[in-house]
Structure formats: C-alpha cells, structure tokens
Amino acid sequence: METQDWNPKEHGLRDPSALMIGHDPRLAKSETLADYALFVNYYFDNTIKDRAYKSKYGLASAAFNQIVEITNGKIKPEEIYVTNLCNSSLPAVNGKGNVYIPEEKAADGVENIKRILHENPSIEYIFPMSLQVNYWLQKLGLYYSTDEFVEYSKPMIDGVVIEPPYYKPIKQRTFLMICGNIYPVIGGKQIVIPTLHAKCFPLNRQFRAYEVSYERIRNYFS
Fold first, then answer.
1. Segments forming the whole domain that contains residue 68
2. Is residue 3 part of a domain?
3. Which of these, 4, 64, 102, 135, has the minimum number of CB atoms within 10 Å of its CB?
4. In degrees rounded to 5, what are phi and psi of residue 169?
5. How far is CA 215 from CA 74, 127, 150, 211, 219, in A?
6. What is the CATH number of the domain that holds 67?
7. Rounded to two decimals, what is the model's pTM?
8. Taking 90 as the threshold, does the pLDDT of residue 51 lie above it?
9. d(Cα 162, Cα 205) in Å, to the nearest integer?
10. CA dist., res. 182 & res. 51, Å (int)
11. What is the band of 29 on the pLDDT scale with cuts at 50, 70, 90?
12. Is residue 197 part of a domain?
C-alpha cells in the first residue's frame, strides 16, 4: 500500500504555500498505515471514527498546530501540502531506534518532493520533520547546511545490517545543529526550515533544548 500525498488544492482548500515532509506512513508502535501522509485527512473530515482514531487525529492535529504556532499563524492548515520522505510501508523496529529509510527509498522521496515543488510553484516554505528526513534531504542534494551535520547524522552500521533495520545516528543530538535554521533549496526559490517531528509537539521537558530553535522560527515569521 502506498500512502498518498495531501494536496489541499485537490480537496477544495487553498493553493499550498508550504510543504510539510514527514517520515513514513506508519503510526509509531503500530502496523497502521495512513491513507494520506500523517493522517491529515482526519483533521479535515470529522466523520471518520475508526480504530485508533484518537492517535491518527492527534498526529494530524499536532502536525498542523506545530506549523501554525511556529509561524505565528501566518501559515494555515488549509494551505499546507503534506508528504512523507517514504510513502511505502517499512518494517517496524523493536524499540532500538527509529524506522530506517533505505537510501533508494529516500531518493524516490526526494524526486517526489522535486515534482511537488515543480507542480506547485505557490509553495514558499518547506518544513522537513525529524533528523533522518533532514539527513537524507541534505545527503541527496535538496538543500545543504554543513558537511559536519551530514557526517555526524549518518546511520550507525550496526543498525542497518540487522533485520529489521533501524536508524540511529553515529553522533547524538546533531539535529540541534540545524533545527529552526533557514536554508535555501539548491537550485530553487523555496526556504527549508527543519523542525522536530509532529509527535514531539508541543515541546515538553525532554525537548527543552529546542525551545531556542523554535523561537528562531517565530522571530523569522514575526
């Protein structure tokens, strides 16, 4: 099963001004796969009341609320295009790390993102969520921060050679190097702003170190 992208224009909403990029189609610690990336259809359709509704709606709501909050309300849910770096099913992990996105799947995702940007020139901002997503976007040439970030965020070999594979960077806390910064798309006019995954929002004590990063984004949109 392939999870679909959410284009607000195709659902009677607005032309997209922002692109939000999630990780993969699965709910954390679940076999449940999304019909649309990040289950965002649950945010707009209150008639859906199926199994795990609370978790699905909660993820969609957190995803949109994060963007609205950090942009001071200047970007609305109705104008956000949503995709995942990987829209196909990946094997769940056993609590050792995050689901690993193989490079070939990530490359397919980057090509899909480039297509989205080409077909939707109204998109000005890109919000890629999570360390691994941003690692692949930089390694595969969508945007760039530093060689150090890419090197330190590489997956540990121990995690990718076992079944099921998992992602863990060779150095911890490298996401603090880029989260909340502003980067240009290589060869494009869009702005990339890395954020934590929606499941981390609102920020709690565990993510207190990212408060400065998020304040930087708010200041950019002030």
1. 8-220
2. no
3. 102
4. -70, 155
5. 15, 15, 24, 6, 6
6. 3.40.470
7. 0.96
8. no
9. 32
10. 38
11. low
12. yes
